[in-house]
């Protein structure tokens, strides 16, 4: 990420009397006095590992929103690209994500616009707001469907256990198990008011993903000849198609405003550092999981690597990994419901979830969660979802829109931002557009040809 010139310091190192005052009027839940953190401390006097609004809590929420079903698809994408090319693409997506979130927060601080929709309306065009809202709704709601389908794949091996009820066998048995799990765990979490409510759940989700990666590495080292399946670089249609998976795997920008709103003593640099730590952690996890999974199964790696483990209940650490990733997806499900809910609430005329009547907010979240499980019950696989969501919605919201917003402020020029920032911004805009078009086209061709 390019360093800012001294002339840009007023845009990022804002003082307490001006920029902080402006953004507080746009972001409802301010906790600079520490009152909310103290309140949480009183409720949980012995469990305060992630204080409300802390950098740790914000980082875990951001990482939890990033990790999820993408972890399951990274090994196949790595197998299609080769370990070197795949790792470089992941690092590039990581850098782009950190910089795009930084741009979004700078726009927020300078304008007071605290949502994608508001930025689209005020900085681009009123019609652009509707397009953006539609993209957010389709993308975030689509991700929840991915999680539901992936959860069905995870729960399937339960039916191999001896003595499992015969009534739950077959296709409708799978759907019944998915519905029960959704009703017990996913739906209740989706009804929470704010992301920070899930900060401990995010910690559990991160730990679970770490265990899954450890299981993949262990299986590779014990049961497979790694070097026989692993390639260094590949350049073909499958490599281009894999870009949509990589883009999808880093899409967390729609959550950054709410996470930033709940951060205590917030600033652009503090959010950038939080994002950098969270995204670097995710990148390390992705590279390890991708290389290990590709080395294990090679070109036979499934779009959901869990489906490569045919009898997971026979190996203890694989069985535990299945349970662990189910926890991760469960925690990520509501975090994707929130921005979808907020986009719909704004289309209905409400400013945000904090000023919306509780019954309206709960009804909106409940309907979104219910439609996600309803559609997810009948979707055969997650590969096509990755292609469309990552290629179309992901590249747009994650890379193209942040660059466009900062350029439309009129305050992001070579004189104020510096040459390095201008190059990085246009690179984000141009490369995001090219990657999105190519990834979407190849994904659709591969799935429907």
From TrEMBL:
Domain named Amino acid transporter transmembrane: residues: 53-443
Q: What is its main location?
A: membrane
Entry keyword Membrane: yes
Q: Does the keyword Transmembrane apply?
A: yes
UniProt biased composition (Basic and acidic residues): 12-22
Positions of region (Disordered): 1-27
Its transmembrane ranges are: 77-101, 131-152, 172-191, 198-219, 239-261, 273-295, 315-338, 359-378, 384-407, 419-445
Keywords of this entry: Membrane, Transmembrane, Transmembrane helix
In alphabetical order, the GO MF annotations are:
L-amino acid transmembrane transporter activity
What Pfam families does the record tag this protein with? Answer: Aa_trans
Q: How does this protein lie in the membrane? A: Multi-pass membrane protein
User: What is the protein name for this chain?
Assistant: Amino acid transporter, putative
Annotated compartments: Membrane
Which residue windows does the record flag with biased composition (Polar residues)? 1-11
A GO cellular component annotated for this chain's UniProt record is:
membrane
Task: Spell out the InterPro entries in the cross-references.
Answer: AA_transpt_TM
Q: Which domain of life is it from?
A: Eukaryota
């Amino acid at each position: 990420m390019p360093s800012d010139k001294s002339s840009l310091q007023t845009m990022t190192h804002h003082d307490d009397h001006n920029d902080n005052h402006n953004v507080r009027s746009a972001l409802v839940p301010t906790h600079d006095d520490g009152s909310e953190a103290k309140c949480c401390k009183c409720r949980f006097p012995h469990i305060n590992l992630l204080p409300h609004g802390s950098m740790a809590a914000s980082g875990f929420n951001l990482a939890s929103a990033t990790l999820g079903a993408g972890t399951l698809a990274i090994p196949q994408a790595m197998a299609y690209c080769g370990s070197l090319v795949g790792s470089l693409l992941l690092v590039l997506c990581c850098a782009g994500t950190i910089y795009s979130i930084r741009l979004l927060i700078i726009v927020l601080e300078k304008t007071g616009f605290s949502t994608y929709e508001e930025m689209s309306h005020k900085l681009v065009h009123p019609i652009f707001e509707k397009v953006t809202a539609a993209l957010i709704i389709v993308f975030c709601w689509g991700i929840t469907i991915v999680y539901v389908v992936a959860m069905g794949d995870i729960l399937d091996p339960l039916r191999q256990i001896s003595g499992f009820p015969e009534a739950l066998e077959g296709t409708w048995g799978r759907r019944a198990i998915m519905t029960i799990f959704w009703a017990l765990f996913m739906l209740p979490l989706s009804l929470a008011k704010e992301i920070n409510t899930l900060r401990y759940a995010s910690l559990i989700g991160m730990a679970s993903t770490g265990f899954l990666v450890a299981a993949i590495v262990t299986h590779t080292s014990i049961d497979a000849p790694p070097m026989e399946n692993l390639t260094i670089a590949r350049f073909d249609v499958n490599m281009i198609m894999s870009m949509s998976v990589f883009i999808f795997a880093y899409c967390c920008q729609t959550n950054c405003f709410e996470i930033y709103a709940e951060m205590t003593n917030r600033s652009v640099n503090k959010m950038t550092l939080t994002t950098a730590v969270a995204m670097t952690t995710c990148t390390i996890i992705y590279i390890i999981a991708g290389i290990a999974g590709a080395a294990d199964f090679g070109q036979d790696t499934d779009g959901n690597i869990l489906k490569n483990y045919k009898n997971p209940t026979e190996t203890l650490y694989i069985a535990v990994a299945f349970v662990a990733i189910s926890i991760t997806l469960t925690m990520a499900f509501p975090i994707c419901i929130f921005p979808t809910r907020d986009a719909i609430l704004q289309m209905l005329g409400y400013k945000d979830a904090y000023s919306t009547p509780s019954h309206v907010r709960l009804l909106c979240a409940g309907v979104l969660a219910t439609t996600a499980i309803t559609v997810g019950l009948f979707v055969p696989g997650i590969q096509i979802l990755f292609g469309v969501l990552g290629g179309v919605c992901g590249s747009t919201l994650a890379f193209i829109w942040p660059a466009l917003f900062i350029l439309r402020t009129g305050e992001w020029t070579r004189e104020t931002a510096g040459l390095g920032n201008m190059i990085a911004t246009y690179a984000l805009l141009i490369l995001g557009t090219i990657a999105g078009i190519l990834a979407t086209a190849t994904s659709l061709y591969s799935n429907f040809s």
